[in-house]
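To: structure subgroup
Subject: Chain for Friday's discussion

All,

I'm putting the inputs and outputs inline so they're searchable in the archive.
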Amino acid sequence: MYAPVWRRRATAVYRLTVIVPTRPRFRAAAPPIPLAAVSEADDPVRKTAFRLGLALVFLRFSMLHQIQSMLMHVNLRLLYLVGIPALLGVLAAGGIRRTFRGRPAVYWTAFAVWMVLATPFSSWIGGSASFVLVYLRTNIVMLFVVAGLAVTWRECRQLMYVIGASAVINALAARLFQSEETAAAGRLSLDVGTIANSNDYAAHMLLVIPFLLWIGLSSRWLAVRLAACLGVAYGIFIILDTGSRGGTIGLCAGLLFFLWRGTARQRIALLALGPVALVALLALVPGKTLERIRTITADTRNGDQEAIMSSESRQYLLRKSVLYALEHPLFGVGPGQFASYEGRHNIVVGTHGLWHEAHNSFTQAASECGIPALVFFLAGIVSTWRLLSATCREASRRPDCRDIQTTTFCIMLAMAGFLAAITFLNFAYFFYLPALAGLAIATHHAAREQFRSRAGARGRILAPVLWPNENNRWRNPAAVGTRQPAPCLVPNGTKRAQAMRRLEQRMR
């Protein structure tokens, strides 16, 4: 509202009109939104496809479609029911264009194209062709579904909630579908899914747990925060219970990143509660599992024999993968063909090799698809990280963008632990990294819109629009030399005198 204030000096009378928001209901008008943005946000085709994309993301991260196939002994093709319409929506609503707004999309697309180019030079063309077709049909498409359909900040938050809910399903699967065979050996694994292996399951949990942490940090409800914190603690216990040494290293990497990029309050909370929680978790982990984890640094002569043999075979496979990458630097031995090529060209067990995968996602890409594929693979990861880091830094400078800072921080936390874990796994062709790249692209552009809108609203409340005249009175620059009243924008909830003093200091 406008409150006119009359001042008399000499023979002239000045009227200073001050905008004083006296009621909490006062809100600054939102800045004008470009027509293209309005059409994208309100496009019914895109909105419908986005809902289907949410269902697809939930199925992929929760592995619920695989659990359904095992329980019902029939595949309902849930991925096809939601995935195909979502992809059609990406094509119809301009999702391809939105996806390539971010540089990670270019690198991951180049990685997929190079896989196709490497197929004719494979040691087994038929096997590589079917392998590449599966990757194009089920994994790389996650990049376009996430980055091409999420436009607004609210939709990015919905993606975070969906992945966090998937973490709850994954945690429940540890109790409902635990493998009895590995449980007898003191390790946790599943009876179902592509992440049934203990090491794969630990890496998957490292990726989804930070999204559950995000729910705890973002929720306004105390009960939800407590439930999310308990879920995070249980997820860490699951990682330790798998006995995965790579998962343990990934967990340590995540903790170090938390201490490095977390806020002061988060660091204090981790340092205060972390040791107590760690002691409690270690007390619940079986002794055999802890003995296996200790072989990371313990003397091999006193360690678990199964763990020692596993370490030796992994070292052998690492050397072979590096050797094959150097022998076939352009196209590798063929996408998905490292195990068969190693088994046919080496004598380790009887008359053949180990017939195992490379157990290193980076050398797996280099040895099977060539060094250019490794370059695209690394470029996709680095560009995704830089995009998230730039958004996080910009949000940290703005007091009204703490939610954006928390979101990008949790995504980077997931990447830190996951990348450390897949250094010891065969995850080069999984959907995780393209999906994270798509989430980084969508989050970055939605956050930029939020930066502009929130800065515009704040600027209309706080911007100094006065100019001192010869009588040291504040006047509108457009009204200098006239007798028009000079408007003054005063911050909400601040007294007039204090506002005027701050404005004078700012103008000086």
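Points worth raising on Friday:
DSSP finds 22 helices and five strands in the chain.
The two ends are 28 Å apart (CA to CA).

D.
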